[in-house]
Amino acid sequence: RRFEEAVQVYQEAIDADPELDDPLVSGALGVAWLSLDRGALAVPRLARARQEFPEGGFLTLDLADAMVRSGDLVRGLAMLEVARRNEKVAAEVEHQRIEADVYAARGDHERARSLYLGMRKRPPTAVFHLARCLAAGGDPVGAVDCLASSVSPIRGSVAMRTCSCRSWIRSGHVSLCRSRPTPCRRLPPAVPGPSVKWSAIISEADE
Predict the structure, then answer these.
(1) What is the model's pTM?
(2) What is the 3-state secondary structure (H, E, C) of the chain?
(3) Which of 37, 154, 105 is nearest to 115 (CA)?
(4) pLDDT tens digit sequence for 113-161
(5) Of 3-12, 109-118, 183-192, which range is least confident?
(6) Segment 58-65 long-range contacts (CB within 8 Å, at least 24 positions apart)
(7) How far is 96 from 125, CA to CA, in rounded Å?
(8) What is the spatial distance between Cα 59 and Cα 42, in angstroms, rounded to a whole number?
(9) Which of 23, 36, 125, 190 reaches 20 to 30 Å from 132, CA-CA?
(10) Are 180 and 206 in contact (CB under 8 A)?
């Protein structure tokens, strides 16, 4: 949360003083927004940087990713094809993950699932996107298993357990969460009283 607040302050500073809008700074800010899963905010920053560095393969790939996450699937796919033609960037895993994201966004969860599972390795972003795809496709237990079997190198296993429990809570499988050897600490009471607000519990688990 503090990181997002810091990025927001940086964004406001650039908006207030255009002289600070250096392409390198803009690109870094775009990557920061993308890491926060804020595709719509990342697109203009990454596009600005790519105008200055059109041969920047990873900028092109990140821009394609941001476009897809913001819902601009047509432009995102077109930019992904441009990135694929850049032989200087060996990022087949990310290419496949972004393509899977497109199918998931279109509602073709089976095709997306096949692409996610076919990746030779799955970085944390792909794991979370696969779990989201499984949940949206009607397999909440599979989504939880996907998260529970992975360990985030950034957040650690406690946050991963919380994310898993959140998925169970969202899907109504609270009993599964309680059955875990190490359930997350934000698990709601066994018999929630009338004062328990499930939306509040889910919101709290999101933090």
Answers:
(1) 0.69
(2) CHHHHHHHHHHHHHHHCHHHCCHHHHHHHHHHHHHCCCHHHHHHHHHHHHHHCCCCHHHHHHHHHHHHHCCCHHHHHHHHHHHHCCCCCCCHHHHHHHHHHHHHHCCCHHHHHHHHHCCCCCCHHHHHHHHHHHHHCCCHHHHHHHHHCCCCCCCCHHHHHHHHHHHHHHHCCHHHHHCCCCCCCCCCCCCCCCCCCHHHHHHHHHC
(3) 105
(4) 999 999 988 888 999 999 999 999 999 988 988 888 775 444 443 333 4
(5) 183-192
(6) 58/89, 58/91, 59/27, 60/86, 60/89, 61/89, 61/91, 61/94, 61/95, 61/98, 62/30, 62/31, 62/34, 63/30, 64/98, 65/34, 65/39, 65/94, 65/98, 65/101
(7) 12
(8) 11
(9) 190
(10) no
Q: Which amino acid is at 175?
A: S
Q: How far apart are CA 65 and CA 108, in angstroms?
A: 18
**Structure-block tokens of residue 169:** 């809570």
As given in the structure block, the two tokens for residue 22 are 């250096």
Which amino acid belongs to residue 17? D
Exposure of 20 in the CB half-sphere (CA atoms within 13 A): 10
Distance, in Å, from the CA atom of 133 to the CA atom of 136, rounded to the nearest integer, reads 5
